[in-house]
């Protein structure tokens, strides 16, 4: 993990900042695509302060939250009163660090909330996700879109071309927009390019 990346995100959370929460209605919609044959295990990429991980744990899943920010994980752990055997947080840069030893694999659900735009090598990330995702699992990306994001915030958004990269490696179950976010829900393709 690069020091600059670590420092940037630690500073963000040390200032008391956080990202928007996922509403219960949105969670219900996302989980309506969940395959009941998939394991009830989740990997939350870029979990931040853990709101999504805790919500999924309350819904009966075993959850792993990973983030590059030690500060975010410190907050997440302080807000979580669940044993590591059910909800586990660890500092990992999914683009650089090994994920082979993460618990609860394979995952029936992998989420990527508000971090997809920051991934430098999206095809490599998606290959890792494919390897970690159960064959009947789903991958959910929640991201702002360039087309609906104010000009000063375009750096945190993705274009339709970047969404197309998702469609190259995953079968799309759903695409919908809610407020200013796009939601991609997909499953593994039988063959990955």
Task: Report what the structure shows.
Helix 5 (122-132) runs parallel beside helix 6 (160-169). The protein starts with a helix and ends in a 5-residue tail after the last strand. It has a 7-stranded mixed beta sheet, with helices on both faces. 30% of the residues lie in helices and 27% in strands. The chain has helices at 3-14, 24-31, 51-58, 70-78, 122-132, 160-169; strands at residues 41-45, 62-67, 87-91, 107-113, 133-144, 170-178, 181-188. The chain has one domain (3-9, 47-188): Vaccinia Virus protein VP39 (Rossmann fold, 3-Layer(aba) Sandwich). By secondary structure, the chain is of the alpha/beta class. It is built from 6 helices and 7 strands, in the order H-H-E-H-E-H-E-E-H-E-H-E-E.
């Amino acid at each position: 993990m690069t020091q600059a990346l670590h420092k940037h995100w630690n500073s963000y959370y040390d200032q008391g900042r956080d990202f928007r929460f996922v509403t219960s209605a949105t969670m219900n919609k996302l989980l309506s695509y969940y395959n009941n044959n998939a394991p009830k295990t989740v990997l939350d990429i870029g979990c931040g302060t853990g709101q999504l991980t805790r919500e999924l744990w309350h819904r009966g899943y075993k959850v792993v939250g990973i983030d590059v920010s030690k500060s975010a994980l410190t907050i997440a752990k302080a807000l979580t009163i669940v044993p590591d055997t059910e909800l586990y947080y660890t500092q990992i840069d999914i683009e650089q660090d090994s994920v082979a030893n993460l618990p609860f694999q394979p995952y029936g659900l992998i989420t990527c909330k508000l971090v997809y735009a920051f991934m430098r090598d999206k095809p490599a990330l998606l290959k890792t996700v494919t390897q970690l995702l159960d064959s009947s699992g789903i991958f959910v990306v929640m991201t702002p879109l360039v087309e609906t994001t104010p000009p000063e915030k375009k750096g945190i958004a993705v274009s339709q071309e970047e969404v197309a990269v998702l469609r190259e490696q995953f079968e799309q179950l759903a695409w919908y927009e809610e407020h200013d976010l796009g939601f991609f829900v997909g499953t593994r393709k039988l063959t990955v390019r």
